[in-house]
């Protein structure tokens, strides 16, 4: 290759903006030079009416080809330089041949570098100059006793000019399309990274908030009963140990998925089948939870979201409600699952209205599945969280 290719596909001249290659395109230039010299020598044998291919003709052929070494750095100068050399070559009466090849490559490089008008202007200058030489100026230019070029052959030259311009425009269009696709892939990758970051933040918040709430309550119980009821304090410490162990295990699972994103999780994600365990943990924090209804068969993403919503709602009851009783009601139809978590209040903190990260995380989980969350005080007192999750996976659901 003449230049280094960019990781992700496509040569450097397909990218937008000016590109300074790391290497000179000397291999392709040498190949073009040899081809132009050899082809022109071979073509001169069948054109005895033209000027013999002498030393000066070969110098022009070499100069026109060697200019291609600068086609990526100075596409404008190379496009007009190759056209100038070609016009001088034909004006001197030398035979036709592959002399147009350097012009085609130079103008092609100018188009893909974003200099379309320059390339079209250079090709227009070449065609007009050839038209003048072949049909008017030939009377005063070598070879002697030359005749004007037939118009049919002139149409072939015009068709060649149009073909070079068309191929160059096609390459430019493909380059722009490739650049758009590359930008879209980069944007999609950034969006996936942001979504994964938010998902990890929700997971860590839900795991830590619930477990630390239980630990906080039990630590208070243990401190209060340490002298008067050591056995009850021991029970509180046991609960703290179990809650912290579970929290560490879930946090480790989340972090493992960050370290090895291509591997499957070592443990299944929690779902509503762990609802009895969640009720037991709430009971250890002094909260009595009554569960009504049974969940349907859920997809892994919906099952995890439903579990986290119930977990966060119960955590909020422990932290912000004066009630020690909560009710979890599950209902479903063929289209959606409805979760309702109620407590009798009253609120013990200023943030009981649901402006914290917990309710924001629940809303994000529901929205990712195409569902909704409604949370707020009940008319008869207390607080209610109502979640509606579709049973059919929508395109917004995280892939798991």
Descriptive report:
The chain is α+β, with helices and mostly antiparallel strands and 400 residues long. It has 10 helices and 5 strands, in the order ααααααααβαββαββ. It has helices at residues 26-44, 55-66, 75-91, 100-112, 116-135, 151-225, 230-259, 275-284, 300-320, 357-368, and strands at residues 288-292, 325-332, 336-343, 372-377, 383-390. It has a 5-stranded mixed β-sheet, covered by helices on one side. Helix 6 (151-225) crosses helix 10 and helix 9 (300-320) runs antiparallel to helix 10 (357-368). The longest helix has 75 residues, at 151-225. The protein starts with 25 loop residues before the first helix and ends in a 10-residue tail after the last strand. The model is unreliable at 1-19, 350-355 and 395-400 (pLDDT under 50).
**What order do the strands of the largest sheet run in, or round the barrel if closed?**
1-2-3-5-4
Order of helices and strands: HHHHHHHHEHEEHEE
Mean pLDDT: 80
> In this structure, how is the largest beta sheet organized?
5 strands, mixed
- Apparent shape: rod-shaped
Beta strand %: 5-15%
Structural class designation: alpha+beta
Record field, number of beta strands: 5
Distance between the termini: 42 Å
Helix segment count? 10
Name the helicity range: 55-70%
């Amino acid at each position: 290759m003449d230049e280094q290719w960019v990781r992700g596909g496509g040569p450097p001249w397909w990218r937008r903006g000016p590109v300074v290659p790391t290497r000179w395109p000397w291999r392709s230039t040498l190949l073009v030079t040899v081809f132009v010299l050899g082809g022109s020598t071979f073509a001169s044998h069948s054109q005895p009416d033209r000027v013999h291919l002498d030393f000066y003709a070969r110098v022009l052929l070499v100069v026109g080809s060697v200019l291609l070494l600068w086609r990526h750095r100075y596409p404008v100068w190379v496009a007009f330089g190759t056209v100038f050399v070609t016009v001088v070559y034909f004006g001197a009466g030398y035979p036709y041949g592959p002399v147009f090849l350097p012009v085609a490559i130079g103008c092609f490089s100018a188009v893909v570098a974003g200099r379309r008008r320059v390339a079209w202007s250079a090709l227009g200058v070449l065609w007009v100059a050839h038209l003048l030489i072949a049909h008017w100026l030939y009377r005063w230019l070598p070879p002697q006793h030359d005749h004007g070029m037939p118009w049919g052959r002139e149409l072939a030259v015009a068709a060649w000019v149009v073909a070079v311009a068309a191929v160059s425009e096609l390459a430019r269009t493909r380059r722009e399309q490739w650049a758009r696709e590359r930008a879209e892939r980069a944007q999609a990758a950034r969006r996936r990274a942001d979504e994964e970051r938010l998902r990890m933040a929700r997971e860590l918040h839900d795991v830590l908030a619930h477990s630390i709430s239980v630990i906080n309550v039990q630590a208070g119980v243990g401190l209060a009963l340490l002298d008067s009821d050591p056995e009850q304090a021991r029970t509180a410490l046991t609960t703290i140990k179990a809650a912290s162990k579970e929290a560490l295990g879930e946090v480790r699972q989340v972090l493992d998925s960050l370290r090895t994103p291509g591997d499957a999780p070592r443990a299944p994600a929690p779902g509503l089948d762990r609802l009895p365990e969640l009720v037991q943990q709430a009971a250890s924090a002094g909260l009595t939870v009554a569960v009504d209804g049974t969940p349907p068969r859920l997809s892994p993403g919906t099952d995890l979201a439903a579990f986290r919503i119930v977990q966060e709602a119960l955590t909020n009851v422990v932290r912000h409600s004066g009630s020690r009783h909560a009710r979890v009601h599950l209902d479903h139809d063929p289209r959606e699952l409805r979760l309702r978590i109620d407590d009798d209040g009253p609120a013990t903190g200023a943030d009981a209205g649901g402006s914290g990260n917990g309710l924001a995380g629940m809303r994000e989980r529901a929205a990712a599945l195409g569902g909704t969350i409604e949370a707020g005080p009940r008319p008869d007192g207390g607080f209610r969280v109502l979640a509606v999750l579709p049973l059919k996976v929508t395109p917004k659901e995280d892939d798991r």
